[in-house]
């Protein structure tokens, strides 16, 4: 008997998963067969819609069939798994983008690979027995098959909750979370399928829908929003540990079983994908991880412990909240020529890149690695891997779809813009990622507009590590048209971009953010120095503040005290990181902007004065901006 039944039925194409003894686990052959059927039916006039269902009461599909993945991976053959995932993800995208309605019937377990074929359909039906889950973190993978996208769009941090705990969703939970659409009692399914096949009309299904049972998870939404909102896996664990409620304790217990690297990466992916409606981007990001999962992740060990030896004692590569961000960046780094592509993938862009310093060089290299044609220019003659050096800024910009600038200040940006804009074609984008004054950004945008060129100001946060790891955050000002055009580049160079509004608003967001950062870093450093003088142990101070109302990024993620909190420049003798003089530059920009619009910013002004003293009169030049702590250790109140 075939593992999959494919036939025309009335006005429908009918696909039935037929491996009930294996809970309908998806094999490579089944993926190929579904793909082929959808290709054939896409142009068949007689087929008005597609029904996908499964034999047996226990499961629609409990996941991908991992036996072959494990045996090939153990033998050092990673190409088999990579090929399987590539074709599976392409099928997931095809289901989501299919021009005809696809109705899926999700009884019993729908997990992992089952979500990929069941939960991207246009009409997803659940019943009393439905249990949907993304259990990948439990086997050392990440929520894939487009599940990361569904999790990213779930309300109230349910995505982080279900992704990390691998908990099962009831029918009501699945509808609330966005994994299913309609509840139809199981006893009515045969009649509904018959109606769909006979009429070929999805509207006919409506009379079968009934109110779903209440979501079990509703009672915990407040707790989930509060605990799963952290920036990282470490934050989420820390939040859960502070709560003794049964729900928090159980959630932490579930998390403790799973692969730390998988969960830390899943949080990162969910954050990157939130607010983005693009399944193919999610699948491409997932594939970066899964393509590396056997060789560099916990996948083979996860399968060994869960399925092969069944000892349920996996030896994960990391301890629970000790996953270095650089390991997550490595797993999610672009794959270059091995990137997952889809049939309608757009061709590579022509990019001019001007200013290849500490930040610009790795950003340009990441664009080239992702397959774009990058021509670069820097007055200092610097270049980057995979990039072609041009003899002038004008030659780098000529013919480019996008010209990226990463320059020291507003005056240099203005002079480079004067040079290159006349060489750019109408509709091309000038993307400035430098940190400059708001006025320069807005003046350059006006210049662009008069030449028919689109302009974006997109300063970054994330420093040199973020530039090389492709994990920057972009704060973007400019038109929707320009933002949409450049979005694929932001996703290569960064983990997040926020469109802040019209031209100049990106720079406005950057200087406001850094004004807060400067002030909180000073407050954190002077508090540590005060704690020292009061005889309070620094570790105790960190333990209290990092989980109390004084917490901030400066304390929790970039602690200025050596040996305390996560690794930071303080642990490397205050080598930057983010240099004190760059912080001073940003604080000056914030105060110039504040003066221009008559905003009262006394804390910002004080922060600027303190950093000016530190950099210009003391020994702060060339040190990380957190080296304010040794400064306060030494100084005394007059
Ligand atoms: P950088 O000094 O290392 O790089 C600037 C580059 O621009 C240099 O290589 C320089 O030769 C080149 N340049 C100067 N004038 C030029 C011209 N007319 N034509 C072509 N090239 C020219 O600085 P960076 O650290 O790479 O920072 C770049 C920008 O990013 C700055 O605006 C900075 O404020 C901002 N930024 C830096 C960091 C960081 O951690 N370094 C973090 C966030 C934002």
Descriptors:
27 helices, alpha/beta, 638 residues, 12% strand, single chain, N-(1-d-carboxylethyl)-l-norvaline Dehydrogenase, domain 2, binds nicotinamide-adenine-dinucleotide, Rossmann fold, globular, 9-stranded mixed sheet, 6-stranded mixed sheet, 2-enoyl-CoA Hydratase, Chain A, domain 1
What would you say this structure looks like, in words?
With 638 residues, the chain is an alpha/beta fold. Strands 10, 11, 12, 13, 14, 15, 16, 17 and 18 form a nine-stranded mixed β-sheet that branches. α19 links the parallel β14 (429-432) and β15 (454-457). α5 (147-153) crosses α6 and α16 (360-369) packs parallel to α20. The protein is globular, with a radius of gyration of 27 Å. Nicotinamide-adenine-dinucleotide binds next to α18, α20 and α25.
Q: How do the strands and helices of this protein lay out in sequence?
A:
Blueprint: E1 4-9, E2 12-17, H1 28-42, E3 49-54, E4 59-61, H2 67-74, H3 79-97, E5 102-106, E6 109-111, H4 113-118, E7 123-126, E8 131-133, H5 147-153, H6 158-165, H7 171-177, E9 182-183, H8 189-199, H9 221-227, H10 233-241, H11 246-257, H12 260-273, H13 279-296, H14 299-308, H15 325-332, E10 350-354, H16 360-369, E11 373-377, E12 388-389, H17 393-397, E13 402-405, H18 410-420, E14 429-432, H19 438-450, E15 454-457, E16 460-461, H20 463-469, E17 472-478, H21 480-493, E18 494-501, H22 505-533, H23 538-545, H24 553-556, H25 580-596, H26 602-617, H27 628-634
Parallel strand pairs: 2-3, 3-5, 4-6, 5-7, 6-8, 7-9, 10-11, 10-13, 11-12, 13-14, 14-15, 17-18
Antiparallel strand pairs: 1-2, 15-17, 16-17
Bound molecules: nicotinamide-adenine-dinucleotide.
């Amino acid at each position: 008997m075939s593992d999959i039944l494919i036939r025309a039925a009335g006005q429908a194409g009918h696909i039935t998963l037929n491996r009930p003894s294996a809970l309908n686990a998806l094999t490579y052959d089944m993926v190929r067969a579904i793909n082929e059927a959808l290709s054939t039916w896409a142009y068949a006039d007689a087929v008005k819609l597609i029904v996908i269902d499964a034999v047996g009461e226990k499961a629609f599909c409990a996941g991908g069939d991992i036996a072959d993945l494990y045996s090939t991976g153990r033998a050092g053959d990673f190409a088999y798994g990579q090929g399987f995932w590539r074709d599976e993800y392409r099928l997931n995208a095809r289901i989501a983008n299919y021009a005809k309605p696809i109705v899926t019937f999700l009884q019993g377990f729908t997990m992992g690979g089952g979500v990929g074929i069941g939960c991207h359909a246009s009409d997803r039906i659940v019943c009393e027995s439905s249990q949907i889950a993304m259990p990948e973190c439990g086997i050392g993978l990440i929520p894939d098959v487009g599940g990361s996208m569904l999790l990213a769009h779930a309300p109230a941090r349910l995505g982080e909750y279900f992704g990390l705990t691998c908990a099962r969703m009831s029918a009501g939970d699945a509808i609330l979370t966005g994994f299913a659409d309609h509840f139809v009692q199981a006893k009515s399914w045969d009649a509904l399928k018959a109606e769909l096949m006979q009429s070929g009309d999805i509207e006919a299904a409506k009379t079968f829908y009934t109110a779903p049972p209440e979501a079990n998870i509703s009672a915990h939404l407040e707790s989930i929003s509060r605990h799963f909102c952290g920036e990282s896996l470490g934050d989420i664990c820390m939040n859960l540990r502070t709560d003794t409620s049964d729900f928090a304790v159980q959630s932490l217990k579930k998390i403790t079983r799973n692969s730390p690297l998988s969960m830390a990466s899943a949080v990162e992916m969910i954050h990157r994908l939130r607010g983005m409606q693009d399944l193919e981007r999610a699948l491409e990001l997932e594939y970066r991880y899964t393509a590396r999962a056997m060789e560099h992740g916990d996948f083979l060990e996860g399968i060994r412990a869960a399925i092969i030896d069944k000892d349920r004692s996996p030896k994960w590569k990391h301890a629970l909240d000790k996953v270095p961000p650089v390991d997550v960046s490595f797993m999610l780094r672009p794959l270059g020529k091995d990137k997952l592509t889809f049939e309608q993938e757009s061709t590579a862009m022509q990019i001019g890149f001007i200013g290849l310093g500490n930040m610009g060089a790795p950003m340009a290299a990441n664009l080239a690695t992702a397959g774009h044609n990058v021509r670069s220019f820097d007055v200092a003659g610097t270049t980057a891997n995979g990039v072609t050096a041009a003899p002038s800024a004008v030659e780098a910009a000529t013919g480019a779809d996008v010209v990226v600038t990463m320059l020291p200040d507003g005056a240099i940006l203005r002079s480079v813009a004067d040079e290159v804009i006349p060489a750019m074609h109408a509709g091309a984008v000038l993307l400035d990622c430098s940190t400059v004054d708001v006025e320069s950004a807005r003046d350059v945008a006006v210049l662009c507009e008069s030449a028919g060129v689109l302009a974006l100001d997109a300063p970054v946060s994330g420093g040199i590590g973020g530039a090389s790891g492709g994990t920057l955050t972009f704060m973007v000002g400019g038109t929707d048209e320009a933002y949409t055009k450049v979005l694929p580049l932001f996703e290569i160079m960064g983990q997040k971009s926020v469109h802040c509004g019209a031209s100049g608003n990106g720079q406005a967001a950057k200087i406001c953010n850094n004004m807060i950062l400067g002030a909180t870093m000073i407050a954190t450093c002077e508090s540590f120095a005060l704690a020292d003088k009061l005889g309070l142990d620094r570790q105790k101070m960190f333990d209290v503040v990092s989980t109390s109302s004084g917490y901030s990024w400066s304390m929790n993620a970039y602690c200025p005290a050596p040996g305390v909190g996560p690794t930071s420049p303080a642990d490397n003798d205050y080598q930057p990181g983010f240099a004190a003089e760059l912080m001073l530059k940003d604080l000056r920009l914030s105060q110039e902007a504040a003066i221009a619009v008559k905003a009262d910013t006394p804390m910002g002004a004080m922060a600027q004065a303190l950093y000016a003293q530190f950099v210009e009169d003391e020994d702060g030049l060339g040190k990380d901006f957190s080296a304010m702590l040794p400064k306060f250790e030494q100084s005394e109140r007059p």
